[in-house]
Each structure stands twice: as structure tokens, then as C-alpha cells.
Design goal:
Elements: E1 2-25, E2 35-44, E3 51-54, E4 60-66, E5 70-83, H1 95-105, H2 123-133, H3 140-154, E6 156-157, H4 168-174, E7 176-177, H5 179-192, E8 197-204, E9 216-225, E10 229-234, E11 239-241, E12 245-251, E13 260-265, E14 270-279, E15 291-294, H6 305-317
Parallel strand pairs: 6-7
Antiparallel strand pairs: 1-4, 1-5, 1-13, 1-14, 2-5, 3-4, 8-9, 8-12, 9-10, 10-11, 14-15
Helix pairs in contact: 3-5
Length: 319
């Protein structure tokens, strides 16, 4: 069992006073047999009441409104999480029986939601590759590992080359991106062979092994295997996502798992700063520096902090 201490700060600083900042946060780690939340402190400017509920995908979601005029909004999530190694699939069922099981559930909830495809111009080209790479006698587990390796080997990890606004078609043409892009491509491949698969947001924790995305927000995939359940696959690092990965939320894509999104009233421009630190140690140092991003307010439109935050979250994923 490993215990991780994680600090995640999101800070908006405004050039003037704004009010009625209404936000939705998905910053509550999954709590199950393989991931136990030992402690979670959430501090928000103005100390608003946070109303929580479970969404359709089972994520814990919080809503709050900071009504009073303010020139800064900070969301500080500090947590300790213990993770346990999840045994890997034994994979001793006949491959044909497993594919038949997948065929029988593809129109059932919730699996049908995790088979929905996002159309893009490169879809037919990728479909041809999926068929070419597939080996018919392999099990869904073996196939999923094969496609994970394909993404890892055929896409370059280049921080800064994409943003959350980058469409799948552009990622496909670039054959490059960051963890979010790798996850989205793998989702398409797995869904093309009718393996239900979902997007996962969270953190990958340091293990002195040089993993991409260590100590920052991260994204990977969970795929459903008959007789086993959901298996995490990290195409950015070509590995099974297990005890070094801390899960925050799942969904069909990044849009279902956005850590923070919201709006506010006011004409002030603002900067956004985000920082994440992860450690095995109990004495995790305080975050003293955040990276600021100057933001120009689009002419004729109110400021949408959701768009600005997701752009920053992408940059965090690129680290």
C-alpha cells in the first residue's frame, strides 16, 4: 500500500472586483477498495457552502457560489490517499467467450455510453489501423494492451503542441500531443472493437521511474474486461494504471471530468494560476509559487473561467 499527499491549487486573480462566481468542481478522489481517501481538506475563498452530489458517471461533484465582491478566488485541495495494487486479469477465459460477453452488453447501461464514438476526419484511417493491428485469437485484455502500446509508440509526447481545444483530427494529423490526447486516441481504438472504455482524470504519483506526467494532473483510460471489470491503461507511459495513479473522475471524455468550471459577473480581466504537488512524505512542503497566465477578455463577451481553467489544466498535463 502506498500513501500519497497531494496539494492542488487553482487561483483566479482579477483586475477589479467581480461577484457571483458560480463554480462546479470535481476534485474529490474516488473512494473504493483500491483507493482510500484518508483525509481531504478543501479551502475556498469566502468559505462558501459546497453542495455535493453524485453525477451520472458516479463522480462526486461540488457546486458553490462566491456571492460577495472579490478580487481573488482560490480553490485549495489538500488530500492524503492510500492506494492498493489491483491484481491484473488472469485472462484464462476463451477469447471467443469474452468477445461474445462484450457483444451482449454493448447496448446496456452504462457500457453503451462508453462505446460512443466522436467522429473526426481521420476516423476511417484509424479504423483501418485498428483492424490491421488486431489479432483475432487474442483476448480483449491482450487487444487493449496492444492498442495501448500502439499509441505509445506511434504518437510523440510533445508538451505545448496541443490544448484542450485541439480536435481529434488535428491530434491524428500531428501524431503528437500529451496525456489527454493519448487517452482520447486510445478510447477511439478500443471502442472501434466494441470494448467499453472511459476517460479518467487524476494524478500520477512520483515513483522515481521517470513516468510522464509525474506530480501533475494526468489522464488515462479504463477499459471493461469480461470476468474482471475496469482495468486502467496509461498510453502516455505504456503501462497499466495501478497503485501509482490516483483517480479523480471518469467519463466519456475530458468534458465529463473537468476539475473546475464556472462563470462570474464582472468586467474585470483576470489571470489564472494552477499548481499541483505530489509526495510520499508526510511533510509535503507548502506551495509557494504558482504559474500565472495573463488573460485578455474577449471583446463583446463575458469572461468564462471554465475555458481558461481547462487551458491551464492542459498545460499542467503537459508537464
Amino acid at each position: 500500500m502506498a500513501t500519497f499527499n497531494i496539494k492542488h491549487i487553482t487561483r483566479y486573480t482579477y483586475t477589479g472586483f467581480v461577484r457571483d462566481s458560480a463554480n462546479q468542481i470535481i476534485l474529490f478522489p474516488v473512494n473504493d477498495g483500491y483507493q482510500e481517501v484518508l483525509k481531504h481538506d478543501l479551502q475556498i475563498s469566502g468559505e462558501p457552502v459546497v453542495d455535493t452530489y453524485k453525477d451520472y458517471y458516479g463522480n462526486e461533484v461540488g457546486n458553490f457560489t462566491h456571492c460577495q465582491p472579490h478580487s481573488e478566488l482560490e480553490i485549495y485541495s489538500k488530500l492524503s490517499v492510500a492506494t492498493r495494487h489491483k491484481p491484473l486479469p488472469i485472462d484464462d477465459m476463451f477469447a471467443s467467450l469474452q468477445w461474445t460477453d462484450l457483444e451482449s452488453i454493448k447496448l446496456k447501461i452504462p457500457y453503451v455510453d462508453y462505446l460512443m464514438q466522436e467522429h473526426f476526419e481521420g476516423h476511417d484511417e484509424l479504423k483501418a489501423i485498428v483492424e490491421r493491428e488486431r489479432i483475432r485469437h487474442e483476448t480483449p485484455y491482450q487487444t487493449a494492451l496492444r492498442y495501448t502500446t500502439y499509441v505509445f509508440e506511434n504518437f510523440k509526447y510533445i508538451p505545448g503542441i496541443t490544448t484542450v481545444e485541439t480536435k481529434l483530427n488535428e491530434v491524428w494529423k500531428l501524431k503528437a500531443g500529451v496525456c489527454q490526447d493519448f487517452a482520447h486516441i486510445l478510447l477511439v481504438m478500443l471502442r472501434l472493437v466494441d470494448i467499453p472504455s472511459r476517460y479518467v482524470s487524476g494524478y500520477v504519483c512520483p515513483n522515481k521511474n521517470g513516468m510522464r506526467g509525474e506530480g501533475a494532473t494526468h489522464a488515462w483510460v479504463e477499459t471493461y474486461l469480461p470476468g474482471y471489470g475496469w482495468l486502467g491503461l496509461d498510453p502516455t507511459n505504456n503501462c497499466v494504471a495501478n497503485e501509482t495513479h490516483v483517480r479523480l473522475a471518469v467519463g466519456r471524455s475530458f468534458a465529463d471530468c473537468t476539475p473546475v468550471k464556472g462563470v462570474y459577473k464582472g468586467q474585470a480581466r483576470h489571470t489564472l494560476a494552477v499548481s499541483v504537488s505530489v509526495s510520499y512524505e508526510d511533510d509535503l512542503p507548502e506551495i509557494t509559487e504558482l504559474v500565472d497566465i495573463p488573460v485578455e477578455k474577449p471583446s463583446g463577451f463575458s469572461v468564462n473561467s471554465f475555458q481558461l481553467y481547462t487551458e491551464r489544466m492542459e498545460q499542467q498535463q503537459q508537464q
